[in-house]
Structure formats: C-alpha cells, structure tokens
Write a structure and sequence with these properties.
By secondary structure, this protein is α/β, with parallel strands linked by helices. The protein has a single domain, classed as Rossmann fold (3-Layer(aba) Sandwich). Helices cover about 45% and strands about 15% of the residues. Helix 1 crosses helix 5 and helix 2 crosses helix 3.
Amino acid sequence: MKKAIVIGASSGIGLEVAQLLKGEGWTVGVAARRVERLSDFEFAACIDVNAEDAGVQLLSLIDRVGGMDLYFHASGIGHQNRMLHEDIELQTVTTNGLGFTRMVGTAFRYMADHGGGHIAVISSIAGTKGLGPAPSYSATKAFQNTYIQSLEQLANARHLDIRFTDIRPGFVATDLLNDGNHYPLLLDKTAVARDIVCSIRKRRHVRVVDWRWRIITAFWRRIPRFVWRRLPL
C-alpha cells in the first residue's frame, strides 16, 4: 500500500487530492493549521509551514504513517495587492517562499535517505510572468517553479530516485479566491484534483491544468517585456 503526505489539506485542492488518494487505497497522512477539519483521516497533524519546527513535525507524521512514497504540497496563500501593503507582501513571501522551501526540502532529504519517492507541488500559472495585481504571489510562484526544476536536476546529479511534478493551475474556485474580486475561467476544484492525481500517476514533470490556461500561458511567454509592462491587468 502506497503512502502519501498532503500538506495544506484542510480545504480546497489539498483536501480534494487527499480524499481521492484515500479512495484509491493510499494510506494518507494530512496536515494543516486547521486540524479540526481533518477528522476524516486516521493520520492528521497540525502543522504551520512557517513554524521553525515544521520540518520536524513533518518527519513525525511520516513516521506515524509508516513512510512516504508521495509528498504533495498544497499549502500556500495569495492575494491581489494593488496598493502593495507590506504585511501582505511579506506574509506571502514567508509562506510561499520560506515555508515552501522548508517543507519541500525536508521531503527531499527524507526521500534521499529512504530510497526515493515523488514530490508534487501546487505552484501556479502566476509564475509565468510578473503580475502587477499580485506582485509577491507571482514572484513566489516563479520561485517555486524554479526550485522544483533545480531539485529535479539535483536529484538526477546525485542519482536519486526522486520524481517531481509541478502543478500549475489557473484560477480555481476555492476559499482562496473569496475576496470579492473577479477571476476569469474559474476551474472546479474537484476536476482540478482529478487532473492532479492523474498527472502524478503519469509522472508528468510540469502540468498546466486546463487546455485554455495552457494556451493562455503559452501566449504570455511570447509577449515582449515592453508590451507586457503596459498591459492593464
């Protein structure tokens, strides 16, 4: 029986993926700050990725589950911040940058010492280009894209049997987007979760969820900088 750890599983995509894995027969350990929402799972832990001991808590959860074949990172925050409020920018960098690095790094080191595994993370299409309405969010998502790519190269250089999947959804209808702003082409969280589990099963390296967003991001990449910086997003 395969064993998975899902971080950020109290709601949204993380919870949906955890439930799908459980339904497929995986032993699933889940973690989030709101542990009261994880009562449906046998193995649950209250973990704040920004806590200094979060890595130690992750290892403790892995030990309770009995190992880890898949690490799935769904923890993250994001806000539009057109006024560039400092607290929003710093909290986003802390969670999506430092917290992400802390947890994914812990998972990498565990797998390096225990024969390998699979690391899958939710980043975002927002990492494709710098988005003016959400500066720290798009910057941290670009960081996540590059970090996973770097770890993939590092694992190959060290001859480690660790696989990686970088999931890049567009806008998904979850609590994260309940901020009163309009978001186009909203995706259903259950459909996104199914796509993620399929992508993990097929060992995809990078997956932009939904064909419409794949076309849009391919177009974004081709827009020159002098045009992009003038777009009224």
